[in-house]
Amino acid sequence: MNAPRTLLDKLWNRHEIVRGDEGTSLLWVDRHLVHEGSHHAFRKLSERNLPVAHPELTVAVVDHYAPTRHRDRITDPAQKRMIDTLEENARRHGLTCFGLDDPRQGIVHVIGPEQGLTLPGLLINCGDSHTSTHGAFGALAFGIGATEVAHVLATQTIWQSRPKAMRIRIEGTAGPGVGAKDFALGWIARLGADGAHGHAIEYAGSAVRALSMEGRMTLCNLSIEGGGRLGMIAPDETTLAYLEGRPRAPAGDEWQRACAEWLALTSDDGAAFDREVTIDAAEIAPIVTWGTSPEDALPIDGHVPDPAKLAPREADNVRDALDYMGLTAGQKLAGTPVDQVFIGSCTNARIEDLRAAAAVLAGRRSRVPGMVSPGSTAVKARAEAEGLDRIFIEAGLDWVGSGCSMCVAMNGDIAAPGSRVASTTNRNFKGRQGRGARTHLMSPVMVAAAAVTGALTDVRPLLKGRKP
Amino acid sequence: MKGWTRHEGMAAGLPQENIDTDQLIPARFMSAPRSEGYGKFLLHDLRFDADGTPRDFPLGPGTSVVVTRRNFGSGSSREAAVYALVDFGIRVVVAPSFGDIFASNAVNNGLLPARVTPEMAEQLLGQLAAGPVRVVADLETGRIRIGDESVPFDLVRSWRDKLINGWDDIDLTLRHRAEIATFAERYRRASPWTWPRGTG
Ligand code: SF4
Q: N or C: which end of chain A has fewer CB within 10 A?
C-alpha cells in the first residue's frame, strides 16, 4: 500500500511538471488572477515581447484602486491610470476583465469563489498575499510577487519549493459571537506572526468543519498573517453546496466527475505532518488586536502588555507599538474609544459577514462615523435585496461600492493620522490605513459592537435576544 | 539581472521586529513607474516626518547591508518593497526570519535574504550599535563578516545559484516548453473540469 499522504502532497503531485533540485518544482497553474497592482509584471512581459500563455486561465479585476464612491468620475489621475492600465493590458492580451461597472467586479479573493473560478484541487496564483483565501476550497493557493506574476503570465507555471506540512485542528464548539476571525487571530497570537513560516497550513477539526464557506475563507485568508505560505481546508459537502451552479464551475456530467475527485482530496489517516497544533474552540473569546502586528492580539477582556514586566527586547517592541497606537501600558482593552469603524476587505466582507454585523446594528445607532464596503458588487446587490443596506444606513454608516478600500487605503479611502479604527481587515501594520492611523483588527460583529458603543467592546452582551 | 558572489559594503542595524512591506514602501507610492526609482520611498514614514523633514535614521546613502530582527518583509506580496531596497542600494538583508513571498521577490531581484539565528542577529546588531561598519557577504562560503564577527547564513541552494548566476526564471522555464505542453495535454484530458466553463 502507498504511504498515507497529506492534502498538500496530493495537490502538489497533481501539479508537478518538473522536479528540480532541493524540493523545487515547476508547477502547473490552473487560475491566475491579476489586478491593478500587476502593472510591473505586464511591463516585464512586454519588455520581452512575450504573449500571455493561457489567457483563458487568467482573469483580471479592478479592486485595489477601485473608488467606492462616484465610480463614474475618478478625480485622482494616478488611480485612474492604474485602472486604465489594467484594462488596457487585459484588452491587449485577450483576458476577461471585471471592470468597475461589471456586476462581477469585487475584491479578487471574493470574486474568484463567487464566480466558480476557484475550485477544489486547483493551483491558484495571484500577485497578492491573501491568495491563501482560495485554499478554503481545498486548492493550493498562494500569493506571488511581480517577477513571478510575469512568469505565470508567460508560462502558466511557477517554480516553488515544497513547504512543510502543518495542521491546525480547531476542535469543539465556539461560543456565541466567536467565529473564524477569532480562531485566526487566536492562533496567530499564540504562535506569532512568523509562527507558520515556511509551512502550508491545513485547518481541520470539528470547529472548522462546522464553518460555512465564508468562515473558512476568513480563516484561510489570515494564514499569511501567521507567516504561512498558504492555508487550506479539505473539500466536503459544504464546499460542493457553495459551488454548485456558480457561473464558471463545471456543470452536468463534469460536475459529477469533479465532485468525486474533489471529495478524495483529504489528508489520509496517519499522514505525517511536520507540525500539529490543536486549539479548543470553546476557549476562544472575541479577539481584538492592540498593536502593530496581527500577533499583538488579545481577548477583549484582556489588558495590553506592560513593557516594565517584559525582557528588554520584547519591551522595546511593545513600547514602540503602544506608542504608535496611543495606548497606555497595562490598560484595559475594553472601553478604549474609537474614532471610526470599517467593515470590508477580502477577510470579512462576504454576505455572511454583513449579515452578522447587521444583526448587531439593527435598530441601533453608531456613535462614530464609518464605512461598509461589500466584498463584491454581487455581495452588495444581495445585501441590498435582503435590506442590510438600510440597517447600516439607518445606523449612520456609509454604504459604499466594492473594492479593497480602507484595507489598503490606495483608493483615497483613508484614516486620518492618529485616528483609531475598529476594522474587519487583516493588517494592523503602521500606516496601513493611512499614515499614523491606528488599526484594531476584529470580527464584523465586534466592529458593529464598537460602532454601537463608540469603544472597543465585548459584543456578547449586545447579542442577547438576537441571531447573529 | 546581474549575478554576484561577493559583496563588500557598509552595514547598518535596524533593531526592530516585523518590519513589514507596508513600512518598507507605503501603499500610496506604489502607482509610480519603476523608472522613477523607488529608493526614495524606502521606509519612507520612518525616515521622514509628515512634512518631509528627514529624521535621524540608521540607513544612510552609503548603506548596502541591513541587519534586522525577525519577520522582516512580512505582509503584502508587493515586490515594490524589494525595488525600494534595491534602488536605495541595499544588496543584503540579514535577519532571523523573512516573509516567504518577500524572500523570493528579493532573490528575483538580486537581493540576498540572509537568514541567521536570532542570537547571531543580536551579535551583529551589537557590532552595529555605534554606527555603520564594513561588511563582506560571500555567497560561495555562505558567510557574512561584520567587524570581528563572521557568521554563517542559511539560503536554499537553488536561490544561491540564482543569485550567483543572475538567472532569470522565464528563460529557465522556457527550456521545459515540451514537458509543459505534454503535461497540460495529459492533465486536461484527465481533469477537463480544471478549465473554467465557457472557455475554449
Ligand atoms: S482587501 Fe486588502 S488584503 Fe484583500 S486583496 Fe484587497 S488590499 Fe489585499
A: N
